[in-house]
User: What shape does this take?
Amino acid sequence: MPTAAPVLFVSDHVDGSVHVLTVPDGTVAGRLTGRHLSEHAGFLALPGGRVACVDDRRGELLVLDPHGDGLVELAVPVAVPAEHLACDPSGRRLAVTTGLGRNTEVWSDLLTVVDLETGEAARVRTRAGEPGVTVLGGDDPLLVLRHREPGALAVHRFADLLAAPPGCPPVTPCSVLALPDDGHGDAQDPVPGRVFAATGEGVHRARRKDGTLVAEAVIPWDAPARGWYLRLDTRRRALWSTLRGGAPDPLRWPEWTNHAWRHDLDTGHTLVTALGPGLVFRLALAQCHTAFTRIHPDGDELVLLGTDGAVRRCPLPAMDGTPRRGGTPWEGVQRRAVAASPGSGWIAVTRGGHGEVHIVDAETGQEAARPRLSTPLHHGGHVMLRTRGDGADGDPVGR
Assistant: This one.
């Protein structure tokens, strides 16, 4: 299914399908069925416009190539339920951590590492939890696990993990760097070999020095809130997050405050922009805009923050089964997923439960198409927008 147009991957992880749409017309260019992708591990951008993801039901890491003769380029068995997915800056060495899945308690301590060039793969045991992961490159790549309770950054040599014998043996990290217990959110800046972890204190950062990590000064949030999500802006060398404030009670989610947080990695300058109350979580990075979706009982909207600081708010049609006042925003409700490509000005937003995708021009805020898919897109599904050579693979952490 070769195509030169921007490509949108749309996953319904409940119904078990992946649609591939051309953008902006929304034409279905390909489809996979019987594939239940991990929404939490998300999509990972690889060189050449490809993406990696994990099928939680079959226990497979998939490499999808919308520009090849067949959509599935490679399938490698991995341990599940997949929690986080990352690769080294070359896109060759991948890691999949396991976590909670649909269980009430975390039960798996398995980590899978894969070399896409040689086809080698290995599984080892680390520590039960919900670990984040980054893979630092170079001649001797390092895998860094971000653990919680107790918090730590645990460093492993990728080559040692890949050479582990069969039987999922336990492994001991080469070194450990202490973190607060509430870490949630990971990013890597491949240029200096630096990793970032979001905590209540701020963004902890550490840089590689030989075969270990050296802690650096914490980046403060500069707001009475914290971020639970980190993302690297490959075009503008910045870190992004969404800061959530207010009462922690999930029943009071309509009162939660939300701010876009941007930290320039070269200047150290931080910019905080108000987004409005309600539920805002993941974000998407387009050519000249950063996109957020805001869910609220008084109306949902797509919020577009331009590189010039201008904010555009685009109303979105209501969803059936949307979170309500007096209930939580997580259980048994519909949500929205958002996607963009740093090489494009298009934004895609899902309408959970309706099977619809809004394709929006970020420059004008106008909807160009609204394709309706063959599945409802339960919980909003999950999406990724790629253009060949867009540089999105410069962010080597799954989203």
